[in-house]
Amino acid sequence: MFDLDSILRSNIKALVPYSSARDEYKGKEGIFLDANENAYGSPLDNDFNRYPDPLQLELKEKLSAIKGLPVENIFLGNGSDEAIDILFRAVCKPGTDKVIVCPPTYGMYEVAAQINDVEVVKVPLLPETFQLDIQGILRAMDKTTKLIFICCPNNPTGNGVKWHDVKSILEHFEGLVVVDEAYINFASYRSLVPELLNYPNLVILQTLSKAWGMAGLRVGMAFAGAPVIDVLNRIKPPYNINIASQHLALEALDNMDTVNRWIKTIVEERKKLAESLSALSFVQKVYPSEANFLLVKMKEPKKVYDYLSEKQIVVRDRSKMTLCEGCLRITVGTEEENKKLILALKELS
Ligand SMILES: Cc1ncc(COP(=O)(O)O)c(C=O)c1O
């Protein structure tokens, strides 16, 4: 049985969160002499002279309508990277606790663990299929394991993992299972968001950085049961999403049609790109992808990487990562960019 209280760090349980001026008075009208702001305004002639809403209610209400999730199940972070860090701070006692990650996967889980002095237990994905080694994960978890990270679709392999496997972890693990859905909008399967009702130990990460095209604004989301969200809100810096990002994200969320069109095009381009790459003599394998990138195995990845760099086409060399020997990770670009990439690679072969 999952019991949040039993996994929270004692300092977090005892924490009295910072109470900001905007927490103490929530009205919108009035003469605001409570936050030591500049009452004359901002040089940019907008409301940047004021601190932002610490709980980003307006933005969350809009996301709530889009995601079909109540506001109390939504946490917003300065990118989902901030949510990852705060999860560590909530439940992992430095020097004592552990987390499980399944490489090859997104590197920030391990970096956040190192920053927080938390041991990382690595249970690699199964070779070639990149599915979870479920027996390995079940064997690796113990009383000091507080978080298990599952990236789905996974970066850099691009595949989704089986729901059956995630479910079995959720059912056997007493810590938090963090499913990172940064690339879910490009996938052929649905988000696990509806499962939040069934699993109080499930945390889902999503972001406005990928399909929504707003990586520069730094808005990430964590969805979970209200008690988990409440803990994350207590730990976060009071004004973690700046006022410009809140305004611009709100405005951007009105453009769902454009975003859906992009997603459709990117998925089509991904298929075309995979076919063109597979036809190249030096490409050994293009792994199936549910994301906006392709993992491509080739004979001499370093040579190809350097050749493309010289042509100012920048891809990611992932050949040093576990199970990714010989692999470059290539983001799906615009139709024109993809054509230029393929043309350059044809010249090389
Ligand atoms: C799997 C995964 N999760 C999270 C992130 C970071 O997202 P954000 O920009 O919201 O911090 C990335 C970025 O590449 C990612 O690949």
Short descriptors:
alpha/beta, seven-stranded mixed β-sheet, Aspartate Aminotransferase, domain 1, binds pyridoxal-5'-phosphate, 13 helices, 349 residues, Aspartate Aminotransferase, domain 2, globular
Can you walk me through this structure?
The protein has 349 residues and is α/β, with parallel strands linked by helices. It has 2 domains: 4-252, Type I PLP-dependent aspartate aminotransferase-like (Major domain) (Aspartate Aminotransferase, domain 2); 257-348, Aspartate Aminotransferase, domain 1 (Alpha-Beta Complex). 36% of the residues lie in helices and 15% in strands. It contains 13 helices and 11 strands. The strands form 2 sheets. A 7-stranded mixed β-sheet has the order 1-7-6-5-4-2-3, sandwiched between helices. Strands 8-9-11-10 form a 4-stranded antiparallel β-sheet, with helices on one face. Helix 5 (80-91) packs across helix 6 (108-115). It is globular. Bound molecules: pyridoxal-5'-phosphate (PLP). The site of pyridoxal-5'-phosphate has 12 residues, from helix 5.
Oligomer: single chain
**Could you give the count of β-strands?**
11
Radius of gyration (CA) equals: 22 Å
> Low-confidence stretches at least 5 residues in length (pLDDT < 50)?
none
Give the DSSP E fraction (strand runs of 2 or more residues).
5-15%
User: Residue share in helices?
Assistant: 25-40%
Helix-strand string: HHHHEHEHEHEHEEEHHHEEHEEH
Query: What is the average per-residue confidence, as pLDDT, rounded to a whole number?
Result: 97
SS-based class: alpha/beta
Q: Which strand order do you get reading across the main beta sheet?
A: 1-7-6-5-4-2-3
- By CATH, the architecture of the largest domain is named 3-Layer(aba) Sandwich
Give the CA-CA distance, first to last residue: 57 Å
Q: Tell me about the biggest sheet?
A: 7 strands, mixed
Using the alpha-carbon principal axes, give the shape: globular
Number of domains: 2
The distinct bound ligands, ions and cofactors come out as: pyridoxal-5'-phosphate
Q: Quick one: CATH superfamily of the largest domain?
A: Type I PLP-dependent aspartate aminotransferase-like (Major domain)
Number of helices: 13
CATH class of the largest domain: Alpha Beta
CATH fold group of the largest domain: Aspartate Aminotransferase, domain 2
